[in-house]
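dude i think i finally got it to work??
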Amino acid sequence: MGNKKQYSKRSLLTANFSTILSIALVLFMVASMVLVSFHLWNLSSQVKEEVSFTVYMSDDANSEQGKELTKELRKNPMIKSADYISKEDAAQMMDKVMGTGHLEVLDGFNPYQASVQVNLKAENFTVKQIKSFITTLEAKEIVDSVDYRDDIINNINTVYHNASAFFIIILIALLIISMTLINHTINLTIRTKKMLIRSMQLVGAKSSFIRRPFLLKGLWLGLLGGLIADVLAILLIIWLSGSMDGFDFSPFYSFYAVVAIGIIVLGGTLTLIFSYFSVIRNMNLKNYKLYN
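look at this
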């Protein structure tokens, strides 16, 4: 009798462990895909904001007008940064490329134009917005021309949109698979208790009384599975931080915390919902299905 009870307890622990592990692995895949999608978006934003275009000042514009234009541009909510480069600064920059004193062949004449180097914010990085902004700039008398590479902008946007669409499809597919697997796992766990459910019904137990322990257990399994998934995700981040020299993960800790909480909540919510419907199904089983 004692051996049978011990075996039953061991079987229950094994079943619970298998359920928790299944839920954890599924949620870990979801967490991993969310993190990959986030870092893809963040990387694309950094790349976009590194692309700059140059506003060349007309020969009639003086340095004060150039600095005023720079201040005006910095106040624009579309712009991340704007830096004024005078003719003298441009010549010094070219000295590093062509050698000191490269203007001596021109008898000291400085052919370079003063300019403003502009970087846009990532959310404003569309060809339509940039062209509209450049048209406004070129209409100013002190602006000679604006140099920008629309092909680079188009390529960056195309790659980002294609990659985003791919990861969104994968994420949706993972969520559907996750919900299906968790539902199946919970249903199998509760189905093993169908005779117990029927016994409770026969003695007159209320539906809410029958559901309560299964809902609590389902919630506990989901929360624990989410916690294990978070631990696996943290171990993955630690491993990546050690493998990717020069990449700082610390600015994203707050986002990681939100994802960790979201995974635990997702696990608990899904198992609670699936447990509820699984118990209802087993409570309404026909007598001939009790032994199948």
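The radius of gyration is 32 Å.
im so relieved honestly
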